[in-house]
């Protein structure tokens, strides 16, 4: 229920001019408040961060709260929107971005023809020969979860035909590029998602002039996670960080000590993938030196890794054929002149060096919508774990706990939070109708009960699905409508057997009285007797009124001539003076009472008659009539005889335009804002039979513009 209703009291707001308007205002405010929904916590991508521009940084979030996204160092925002807004409907605008790394940077690439020595990742362009179906392909040196590819073409490039994602087993996935337009020197991002991607290929119609190619993956590790701030991180290959010294130089043993001091070692036990990655990264590096020490040294008989294990022949990467050891202490360097392959060097020579290390930490693990996550370590160090829960009304699907592994990646996937569902309500013992107001039985949604016609709802009409998956309150029931005993009438009696929906009651009048209204009423679906209860009138009084009406007709012919002159005089006089003339006294109606007079035809009336009999709805002591109305005479029965001095055919004032009448048998005449009822023209002024009478219901007080 709306909280404003707790303040509602007619006395509290008695100084308002119109309590109905105030009630409507409260209903509008409550309705507007009911339509405003708070938002759950928005989803945050892995490797991402979020801050809120609103009154509270914690869920639930009020409408218009702004969520701003950013990514961890080394990651780029891809797709989605940087800012999302909590809407009044309880949902976040737009889509969350993805935080990904360009895994093609510094990786080896080949193309179908031309010179592929230029590195696209260094901002240089590569161009193929003008051959049909020219292509360029990059080896990612690992399997990645690719989210998209961006490319930039040079001015000599032909039309792009396809972009392929290639998996380790050789299977190709063609990206849908039909919605993209590739123009000269414009970077175009193509959304293309696939797991376990090893290579990416770009195919052109003929010549391919490629100046930029980036492949974005979400499961990559950034150089920031290597925590080697004093060195340049060349890349992460097979889960290990490879960093190059900047201006530092040392002999081989000194280089090893420097690496150990930084939690690393000179590179050793490198696979072919790691060595290919190092060669490509050094070739693309803008800060390359001539030589770099690695963790391979000589013994009397063979070459050994820095940990003392023998280097297998297949693991060696000599620039030429295998080089044998000599009698002097030697170690291996990567040489620029040898295209970054192995060559021996005396250990006492001072060279730059490489360090091999493991990543030190993970990034933010991400959280789904309406989810919450806590950590054993706020720095996300290797071995720490994250625990997931959901907001109230949601349940977790997936692993509740994830671990930061040695690869600097979180185990498993981000779990999802789904709204709890309440039980189905297809069958209702109450016997009526049940509707799902929001289409589902999820948390926060409502159901509405409705009884069949003639039955009354007992209990709450609406129930909502609660946070524990149960429906609020209890199911209502349906009870047959009971109108209770119909009211008795003066000078008459009523007979009724049952008072439930569909039952009928019969009214009769005593001798000497005539029934005005319907003799039979029935119990309606709303619990009231329909139509209106009749009344019993004294027949003698009705005859007297009819006789008086007939006598008035005799002088009408002469009166019309006189009134013609009086009417001209009255109009002129009326235009200068007040628009209404008091005839008799009537006190101002109490506050809130309708300023209305009811008209009940007491006898069968001809449309041309000048006499209509009115029954007031309240004690009448004052009534204002326009000057062209002649008189208003009270009768012993409490009714009033209003003589309308208008000749046949009876001409009534032109009616203003009103909203449609509540019933088809009512007309409201307003003279100077005082409502008076006359015989409705829609029934021709004459019922079909003496037994059929017109019953008039109350109309709202309408102030016309006359």
TrEMBL record:
Residues 680-706 are annotated as: Disordered. PROSITE patterns: C_TYPE_LECTIN_2, SUSHI. Residues 1-33 form the signal peptide. The chain crosses the membrane at residues 553-572. SMART domains: CCP (SM00032), CLECT (SM00034). Residues 695-706 have a biased composition (Basic and acidic residues). Disulfide bonds join 390-417, 422-465, 451-478, 509-536. CDD domains: CCP (cd00033), CLECT (cd00037). Residues 37-101, 360-419, 420-480, 481-538 form the Sushi domain. The gene is Acey_s0197.g1595. It comes from Ancylostoma ceylanicum. Keywords: Disulfide bond, Glycoprotein, Membrane, Repeat, Signal, Sushi, Transmembrane, Transmembrane helix. This is Sushi domain protein. InterPro entries: C-type_lectin-like, C-type_lectin-like/link_sf, Compl-Cell_Adhes-Reg, CTDL_fold, Galactose-bd-like_sf, Sushi/SCR/CCP_sf, Sushi_SCR_CCP_dom. It comes from the Eukaryota. Pfam families: Lectin_C (PF00059), Sushi (PF00084). Residues 237-356 form the C-type lectin domain.
